[in-house]
Amino acid sequence: MRTIVALVFASACFAQQPEFEVASIKPNTSSEIGSNFNRMPGGGLNAINVTLREMVGFAWDLRDHQLIGMSGWMGIDRYDVFAKPTQNDNPTGAKRSFDDDFKSIRLKMRALLIDRFKLAAHMETRELPAYALTVVKGGAHWQPTTSDGLKINDRNGLVICKKISMKDFAERALSYRMGRPVIDKTGITAEFDFEIKFTDESAGPNAEPTGPDFLTAMREQLGLVLQSQKAPVDVLVIERAEKATAN
User: Fold this and answer.
1) For residue 159, what pLDDT is reported?
2) Helices (H), ranges, 42-116
3) Least confident interval from 6-10, 125-129, 195-199
4) H-helix or E-strand containing 184?
5) From 7's CA, which of 153, 157, 176, 195 has a CA 20 to 30 Å away?
6) Measured distance CA(105)–CA(78) in Å, rounded
7) Does position 16 have pLDDT exceeding 70, yes or no?
8) 168 vs 118: CA distance, rounded Å
9) Is the separation of the CB atoms in 101 and 39 below 8 Å?
10) b/e per residue, 183-219, with b = 16+ CB within 10 A?
11) Quick one: pLDDT band at residue 15, thresholds 50, 70, 90?
């Protein structure tokens, strides 16, 4: 069953969206693989070698599996975006948290995509394949956090998490890695510091194994497992988009 939650883009609400003062969008022809979204002082953005798919995912803070209707050039053509905030974006110069700063940038990115890519879409809730994060019999194996802030570092067969809740671990780390929603069903609300060491399968078939695969490592080292299920998931359905012209 599909439920249309809201019509995201309409001309009436577009005028209410916060906007960048100046934004440059240019095709990237470097043939590089990686892409980056870099926060600039005052609420600006410098995005390098990004596709429209990546820009939409960034603007709505959605994972790839939550984007419906992205096809063809939307995931292939790459751009460089340089956007400056307006002078009244943060007129008092008050220090904002990392999350608050990015919330403002994401909202301005939405307005930019609507304007320059003629993007139109709406949110729906759909029943999609998902995972439930649960604790194995005998309990989990973690240490209470001693860190100052949330940190997730996932690279080269090592995941390092600091001051993380099970909800954030499920939604921010595991959903990205597994390519589908992961829902916290552990019932645990505390925050923890932990590491997961495993063999990185992306290293290629000829790489020498240095430990168990990720899911085995998560079970053995943390006492956590994933169980397949279906769950209601918020998705963004793309209705229309056009290629942006260089400027």
Assistant:
1) 93
2) 52-59, 98-116
3) 6-10
4) strand 182-184
5) 176
6) 20
7) no
8) 33
9) yes
10) bbbbebeebbbbebebbbeeeeeeeeeebbebeebbe
11) very low
% of the chain exceeding 90 in pLDDT: 57
Print burial letters for 152-165: b (CB count within 10 Å at least 16), e (below 16): eebeebebebbbbb
Determine if residue 194 is left, alpha or beta; phi over 0 gives left, psi from -120 to 50 gives alpha, anything else beta.
Answer: beta
CA torsion 117→125→65→12, rounded to 10°?
A: 10
Q: Which residues contact 210 (CB under 8 A, 6 or more apart)?
A: 157, 197, 198, 199, 200
CA torsion through residues 146, 152, 155, 159, sign: positive
Region of 63 please: left (phi>0), alpha (psi -120 to 50) or beta: beta
Tell me which of 30 and 182 has the higher pLDDT. Answer: 182
Which residues partner with 22 through β-bridges? Answer: 84
Confidence of residue 133 (pLDDT cuts 50, 70, 90): very high
The region of weakest confidence among 38-42, 58-62, 182-186, 218-222 is 38-42
Mean pLDDT of the region 230-241: 95
Looking at residue 190, its amino acid is A
Tokens 């980056």, residue located: 36
